[in-house]
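User: I'm putting together notes for a lab meeting next week and I want to include a structural view of one of the chains we've been expressing. I don't have a solved structure, so I'd like a prediction I can at least talk through. The sequence is below, exactly as it appears in our construct file.
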Amino acid sequence: MPRRRPALEPAVRGQNPIAWSAPGDLYNSRFMTSRLIPVEAFDLVVFGATGDLARRKLLPALYHHELNGQLPASVRIIGAARKPMTTDEFRRAARSAIETHVPASELRADTLERLLGHLRYVPVDVATNAGWSELRALLDAAPNATRVFYLATSPQLFGTVCERIQAFELDVEAARVVVEKPIGKSLASARLANDAIARVFPEDRVYRIDHYLGKETVQNLLALRFANALFEPLWNSDHVDHVQITVAEAIGIEERGGYYDGAGALRDMVQNHLLQLLCLVAMEPPALMDADAVRDEKLKVLKVLRPIASSNVGELSVRGQYQGYLADLGAAMSDTETFVAIKAEVLTWRWAGVPFYLRTGKCLPRRMSEIVISFRPVPHNIFGAAAGTIVPNRLVLRLQPDEGVKLWLMIKDPGPGGMRLQHVPLDMSFAEAFGVRNPDAYERLLLDVVRGNQTLFMRRDEVEAAWMWIDPLIAAWQATRQPALPYAPGSWGPSAAQELIERDGRHWHEEA
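Assistant: Thanks for the context. Below is the predicted structure for the 512-residue chain, given as structure tokens.
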């Protein structure tokens, strides 16, 4: 029988507290599997600390770490931005952000006060020397702490920030740098950005963050494949008919118009998020769960993607733009795509002939990210037409909004009256199955940086290999003048995206 847990005592530093979902929740001892690992003392410097990323993601993630007892008492979270502000003003802004973006049921007054006590603020202009001496003086007060520099800034400033870090001798041996995507807008610009970072930080101290890799379902994909005898023997062209990867957003460009119009869906989503998911589906088993072993296998996938050029771009890709984009952008003309659908192929023995359908867009019917492994149909129906249609098995991995795994199977409809087959799912929501709150991806990734674990971060050669595939696709769009086809907000993109997959006798998985 489930029993009510005892009151949760304050976490003792150095212990491994259990990750409770909320005070008063019921739990069952079978599900007490989620344990948290504390970290050593560290200083986290967030450049761009007054920006949207810090407010929506970083500060709430740090709050939850404090709630779970993972942050050392000596940790310091140092905001750095051009805006003139005192530490007290920064703390008030952080309080507002946390109260806005953390559910009220998870807010604890004492936890919030402890976190705010860790915060500091230094006005810093990354393009000049202003504020850097003050930042150095603050960091020098804890010379033995691990230093994490989080660049929540425009990518154009990555090199500038790293140069200043070096010039003011902040790049101690224990220092690491975290950079957000996009890394460049092309292979050439990505190399320039990587070169600038590499002049200060060696590759083993660079963390290129893709928050999709921090999602529970993405890591569970590795567990499903490599910790079970059931799936890996079927994970090939003999048994898999095709793979679908969809990342859908219900919103439009909102406040990101300036950035988005210069990037588009291909650069913003496909080059990083979708290709990383494709790599995890298609890669060969690594020798061990080591950062470079995993990333070596992902790199091999990127290098064997079928090239898309002018000769086949119209057949293998669709561009779209939601109606109303120009009004949202405040412009009279733009051909930037807000929707992309691509038929990709991985040219290996394992995946020969298996298409990977990629799809992403804005103003789609709902926010949803999923990977669908669609297996081949049974070779012969022994039940006859009266039993109903046999639908091929599907394994659906939901990344958002409700992370989990769903395996669609054919079973007999219960009851008398003969054999009637039904297509039904075995459905596991991680939050429901394990009785714990599903942590945000940034929570996992932030402390992986402190621990020095690069497994869920992109390596330089991965980023550049992805651009080597994306650049010719962009060039082919330009050479053939492939237009961004209009689509109605709330639809699944232009009709050409349906035709892309239906030409092959398949359909997009659009489960409500």
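A couple of points you could mention at the meeting. The chain has two domains: 3-210, 213-380+398-409+426-439+459-502. The first strand starts at residue 3 and ends at 4.

User: Perfect, that's what I needed.
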